[in-house]
What does this fold into?
Amino acid sequence: NLIMGSTQTIGVLVPNLANPFFSMFIKGIQQASQSHHFVPIIFDANQNQKLQSMYIEELIKRAANGLIIASATLDANDIDRILTRNGIPYLLFDQNDAQIGDRVWVDDYKGGQMAANYLLAKGHRRIALVVGENITHNIQQRISGFRAGMAKYRLTLTDDMVVQTSMTKLGGYEATSEVISKKPTAVFCINDEMAIGLYRGVQERGLKIPDDLSIMGYDDIDLANFITPKLTSIHQPAFEMGQVATDLLIERLNNPKLAHQDKQLPLELITRDSVKSIQ
Ligand code: RIB
It folds into this structure.
């Protein structure tokens, strides 16, 4: 890397490349990298600790200049130990939001509250929550915010209204029977991917969204606007998150003594057609 003219590299680890949320994040990383003459090297290592450790080791061997880690397979302290020992700056993000080092983040607690407020304002009281099996810190915040939103209406999200499945379209699809058995009027899916899978399951059973069941997602991936009915969601600025993460990391590479950097990006409620007003 010290050879003049060689391109500098940033290693990127995400949990799931098949999820458009992470594709947009990577697009943002790519764009910001390009303007600084860096190239990203991207890996997806969800739930596979061996694979993730192997990728990190490889990135170290190949002398990556810095790392952006969004998957939470390895604990933040382990990452810190490995990378600091090797003198490699890194930035933890999203599922790996451990508040160590530079930070790019959104207020997931507030995002959860926004979702709850919207569904409650539409008159929903019996609400089911669809979450992943592996609850990372950011998702935990999202759920806590949602609970707090319900508590303001003196409502409690009881455990029997929570369905756990994998955070994919298939996961959402497979959760359909369990979700329906809870007889909710609305369902909040912790990401859009699961909401899209649930759509298919619900529609296959002859139920209409939102007339028979309202569904809300989170992320606002591009697909949200191309399914029927269009999905109401909380927008995460994934592209910008990737850009800012890259900018911060490169600044850190250029100036290791820089004070701790913290950038919060906004979330936005995007109302479309998947939630019915029932008052
Ligand atoms: O869809 C992927 C989800 O997991 C997003 O909501 C993101 O924040 C991540 O943690």
Q: What stands out?
A: The mean pLDDT is 92. The CA atoms of residues 12 and 97 lie 15 Å apart. Residues 19, 21, 94-95, 138-139, 167, 191, 193, 218-219, 236 surround alpha-D-ribofuranose (CB under 6 Å).
